[in-house]
Design goal:
The protein is α/β, with parallel strands linked by helices. It has helices at about 35-45, 60-75, 95-110, 135-150, 160-170, 190-200, 230-235, 240-250, 265-270, 280-285, and strands at about 10, 15-20, 20-25, 50-55, 85-90, 115-120, 125, 130, 150-160, 180, 200-205, 255. The strands form three sheets. An eight-stranded parallel sheet has the order 3-4-5-6-9-10-11-12. The structure holds NADPH dihydro-nicotinamide-adenine-dinucleotide phosphate.
Length: about 300
């Protein structure tokens, strides 16, 4: 398969973000071991990916950095060709902890800057995992400082709901460039996606496959990988069910973060730009919505700023 390139979107700060990122978080994806990450990142860059998504909490920033270094050493890309996203974990939400936490991430990645730094959750935690009452507006001041220092070219949030986005914007100088949230056929998130897009905030869709493949096999909501309507769309376009679901998200203007450690699926997940779905097909996939989440951190449901409906 030839290397595919993803188009870019312009963020509200003028930076450009490739619309396909390799996901590297493994806690949520069955079976991926940390030593696979270096190879997956290298393989993804070889397959045409220019955007890699990681986070301090994934504990794989060293492997991500090594995969990037391998690709650069081989002359596949230069640093400036890549877009690297990482995230601030919830136990470093005090304003003066943000820049040091980012510097630690940069050290692990072996980079001088990231392209995008996100507040991973609006919830703040103490070091022991108990609730902290630090306000994400305070955390955002630290994020603004990280951007001003050039350590992060763009800054944004993750897992923020509409009210939290609005409150953040009314209380800060720099508008978030991105909100990274779960979006897939079981959780289509029309209201939150529209709200962000109307505000000029780009939406990154995590867990893009939803329950399509491996999770909670007996209790998962549809669609599954053999769903007849998705299979029919796949036949029409000569694509796999996974590619149909990813293209559905692209056609909604989202930036997707498929995770794979498999060379063939890594290539498949960016081979999306020679077809598009019709309005009717997008609507058909939208009808799977059940507002059911893959990622539901209910252990935090009574913590301040829990972002999801309880
Ligand atoms: P995904 O929806 O990307 O699903 C990953 C699973 O799908 C893996 O088991 C993978 O297996 C399989 N898979 C990959 N490609 C295909 C394909 N073409 N056909 C069939 N199966 C496929 O889930 P994640 O939860 O990992 O989310 C993706 C990324 O989003 C994370 O890695 C992380 O970077 C980010 N994320 C962010 C969160 C946040 O709070 N901001 C929360 C959760 C995720 P295999 O590897 O064998 O291909």
């Amino acid at each position: 398969m030839m290397a595919a390139q993803a188009p870019v979107l312009e963020l509200n700060d003028g930076n450009k973000i490739p619309v396909v990122a390799l996901g590297t978080g493994r806690g949520t994806a069955a079976g991926a071991a940390i030593d696979e990450v270096r190879h997956a990142v290298y393989q993804a860059i070889k397959a045409g990916y220019r955007h890699i998504d990681t986070a301090a909490i994934y504990q794989d920033e060293p492997q991500v950095g090594q995969g990037i270094a391998d690709a650069i050493a081989e002359g596949l890309v230069k640093r400036e060709d890549l877009f690297v996203t990482t995230k601030l974990w919830s136990d470093k939400h005090a304003q003066d902890e943000v820049v040091p936490a980012l510097r630690e991430s940069l050290g692990r990645l072996g980079l001088d800057y990231v392209d995008l730094y996100l507040i991973h959750f609006p919830i703040a935690l103490k070091a022991d995992g108990s609730a902290s009452d630090i306000d994400y507006v305070e955390t955002w001041r630290g994020m603004e400082e990280a951007k001003k220092q050039g350590l992060a070219k763009s800054i944004g949030v993750s897992n923020f709901n509409s009210a939290q986005i609005d409150r953040l914007i009314s209380n800060s100088q720099i508008k978030p460039a991105v909100n990274q949230i779960e979006v897939n056929p079981s959780l289509t998130q029309e209201p939150l996606v529209s709200h962000c897009q109307e505000l000029g905030i780009a939406v990154m869709a995590y867990s893009p496959f939803g329950f399509l493949v491996t999770r909670k096999v007996n209790t998962s909501p549809p669609p599954r990988i053999d769903d007849p309507s998705l299979v029919a769309m796949g036949k029409k376009y000569g694509k796999s069910t996974g590619q149909i679901v990813l293209r559905y998200l692209i056609d909604r203007g989202l930036i997707i973060i498929p995770k794979s450690a498999n060379e063939q699926r890594i290539a498949e997940n960016i081979d999306l730009f020679d077809f598009s779905l019709t309005k009717e097909e997008i609507a058909t996939i939208g009808q799977f919505n059940k507002n059911i989440r893959v990622i539901e951190p209910i252990r935090w449901k009574d913590y301040p700023n829990y972002p999801f409906e309880k």
